[in-house]
């Protein structure tokens, strides 16, 4: 287990400790969508955080991606940008880092109780493939569901 400890209080078995930096999108004031993460029961508005602290993030490209209404641009930046952003967030929420910990005004701006926000689909899905539509995939799935019977039902034959 990582030695990281956050100044944000949460139970030891919470699904969103400082080690787990999930990304999502929530509806902010005025209906605007903001990229966010969670630490404990706090939704962290990465749009607002990156706007107030752009130098903390890897580049202007990362800041722009975090200010987009979906995760698509951020996802397209690749592993190095993701790793640096994760490290930046973990550092800002580390118990030994005063930058955000000791700034109540910034905390109020970037942290929202998770029960007060509406989470939405975080990405625009450009293409979708239903693999069950393929006869081969349907056969494989049918074998799992019906190991002792015909893997394909009448509608596939």
Descriptive terms for the model:
single chain, 157 residues, alpha+beta, 5-stranded antiparallel sheet, 7 helices, 36% helix, 14% strand
Task: Give an account of the 3D structure.
With 157 residues, the chain is of the alpha+beta class. Helix content is 36%, strand content 14%. It has seven helices and five strands; from the N terminus they run βββααααααββα. It has helices at residues 46-52, 60-66, 72-77, 79-92, 98-101, 104-110, 135-145, and strands at residues 23-27, 33-39, 42-45, 111-113, 118-120. A five-stranded antiparallel sheet has the order 4-3-2-1-5. The longest helix is centred in the middle third of the chain and has 14 residues, at 79-92. It starts with 22 loop residues before the first strand and ends in a 12-residue tail after the last helix.
Please sum up the structure shown.
With 157 residues, the protein is of the alpha+beta class. It is built from seven helices and five strands. Strands 4-3-2-1-5 form a five-stranded antiparallel sheet.
Write the layout of secondary structure elements.
Layout: E1 23-27, E2 33-39, E3 42-45, H1 46-52, H2 60-66, H3 72-77, H4 79-92, H5 98-101, H6 104-110, E4 111-113, E5 118-120, H7 135-145
Order of SSEs: EEEHHHHHHEEH
Overall geometry: elongated
**How would a crystallographer describe the biggest sheet?**
5 strands, antiparallel
Structural class: alpha+beta
């Amino acid at each position: 287990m990582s030695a990281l400890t956050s100044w944000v209080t949460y139970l030891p078995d919470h699904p969103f400790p400082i080690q787990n930096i999930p990304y999502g999108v929530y509806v902010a004031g005025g209906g605007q969508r903001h990229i966010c993460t969670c630490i404990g029961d706090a939704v962290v508005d990465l749009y607002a955080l990156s706007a107030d602290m752009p130098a903390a993030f890897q580049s202007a490209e990362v800041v722009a991606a975090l200010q987009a209404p979906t995760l698509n641009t951020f996802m397209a930046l690749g592993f190095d940008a993701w790793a640096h952003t994760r490290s930046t967030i973990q550092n800002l929420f580390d118990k030994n880092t005063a930058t955000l910990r000791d700034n109540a005004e910034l905390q109020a701006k970037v942290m929202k109780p998770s029960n007060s926000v509406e989470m939405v689909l975080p990405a625009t899905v450009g293409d979708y493939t239903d693999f069950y539509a393929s006869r081969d995939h349907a056969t494989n799935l049918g074998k799992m569901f019906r190991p002792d019977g015909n893997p394909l039902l009448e509608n596939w034959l």
